[in-house]
Specification:
The structure is a single chain. It contains 8 helices and 10 strands. The chain has helices spanning about 15-25, 45-50, 75-90, 105-120, 135-145, 165-175, 190-195, 225-235, and strands at about 5-10, 30, 55-60, 95, 125, 150-155, 180-185, 200-205, 205-210, 220-225. Helix 3 runs parallel beside helix 4 (about 105-120). The radius of gyration is 17 Å and the shape is globular.
Length: about 240
């Protein structure tokens, strides 16, 4: 894949960030809430607003709570409904992942969620639950068999640049049967090196903190267009 074909995906949690992605014509956004805990399913109002933006696809994170990726039957029912409602609000894809308590892939649950997603014509990305599985090579084969469109991974490391050798191996193993998207810690300083792995896409946040709010109310962020432009410049 040439640099010009490589896709860029911004991980966003606000309409303002999604608008920046739209203005700069990124391929898609992964829309979340609560990125400080790894991301949760956003509100339906936010999904609808982002899905109405031009030039950029909205792919919705389907994750009902923080913590591990082994979900109860009631949580899985919530996830199914969130997929249906995301489609109704105009989302083009979903981002999900379910594991067993043992850390293995939950084939049945993933297959059920995928079936609903595909019934609405939406793409499906398997998220960084992959980065905590014990046997990434066999799990990648399972994701291909399940017909996931892409895998988001940091190469089982804290950041994608730390996991770059694993990512290279995943690209070779995937062999075009599933898109491999590198994410976590991606910036203009390392994007070029990550592109050389042959990944199909880069995934990164486009926000910067501006202050810590009182009474434990969290951090306020604003869009970081400069970061986005810096990464885009690496594709030219």
């Amino acid at each position: 894949m040439s640099n010009s074909m490589l896709e860029l995906e911004a991980c966003v949690e606000s309409l303002e960030e999604a608008k920046v992605a739209s203005i700069h014509k990124l391929k898609r956004v992964e829309l979340c809430s609560a990125l400080d805990v790894g991301g949760l399913t956003p509100s339906m109002g936010l999904i609808e607003a982002c899905a109405s933006l031009p030039f950029v696809e909205t792919h919705v994170l389907i994750r009902p709570r923080p913590g591990n990726f082994a979900y109860s039957s009631s949580e899985l029912e919530l996830m199914k409904r969130d997929i249906e409602m995301s489609a109704e609000k105009g989302a083009k894809g979903v981002v999900l992942g379910v594991l067993e308590k043992s850390g293995m892939l939950n084939l049945k649950a993933n297959q059920e969620l995928l079936q609903i997603s595909k019934s609405f014509g939406m793409e499906a990305t398997f998220h960084r639950a992959f980065d905590v599985v014990e046997d990434p090579e066999s799990v990648l084969d399972q994701l291909i068999e399940l017909d996931f469109d892409r895998l988001l991974t940091s190469g089982q490391a804290r950041t994608a640049i730390d996991g770059i050798e694993v990512i290279k191996g995943l690209v070779q193993q995937g062999d075009g049967k599933i898109q491999i998207m590198a994410g976590s810690g991606v910036n203009a300083g390392n994007a070029g090196e990550l592109i050389q792995t042959g990944v199909d896409a880069l995934h990164f946040s486009i926000r910067k903190p501006i202050r810590q709010e009182k009474l434990g109310m969290g951090t306020t962020y604003e869009p970081d267009a400069r970061k986005l432009i810096g990464i885009q410049s690496m594709l030219k």
